[in-house]
Amino acid sequence: MAKASEIKVGNILRYNGELVTVTEVLHRTPGKGGAFYLDKFRNIKTGKIVEARLATDEQVEICRVETNDYQYLYEEGDYMVIMDNTTYDQHSIPKALFGPAAKFLKEGMNVIVSFESEEPIMATAPNHVDLEITYTEPAVKGDTSSGALKNATTENGIEMKVPLFINQGDKIKVDTRTGEYVERVK
Fold first, then answer.
1. Residues in domain Elongation factor P C-terminal (predicted)?
2. Is the separation of the CB atoms in 111 and 125 below 8 Å?
């Protein structure tokens, strides 16, 4: 347990039975009455922002979170199986922790996962991933307006829009946060 005055932005706390990350800490000293902290927390599971008014000596629980690199092995239903790169221990974590980036994961990729007392609480995929185009529509001659896009399918079955010059067999870089084409990879 720690005092509210020891909270810093980025800490992960257990507040009202939920895991939250601290996004903002404001110290207030009103003209009358005691000083207090106005804190903003983001719920890790739901993403909801919660505001709290804490006395300077109020007790809060700062959680110990371990964040490490893991290797993504394979998908198993609603879970992703990952392996610790140093101990070779395998863990099953919910696919939902990766959010929309889960569909871009390829076997053997490195991912970052945070655990709080053996429970996975956060997972992050790489910002960019290289994928091979398995099918793309042929470009229509004369359709060369700037920014023209066509449909394409990647090696893991994702359909997306790519520029006209991308052909079947090309490798492209995709932003896993937005799901958009970034560039062609040589």
1. 129-184
2. yes
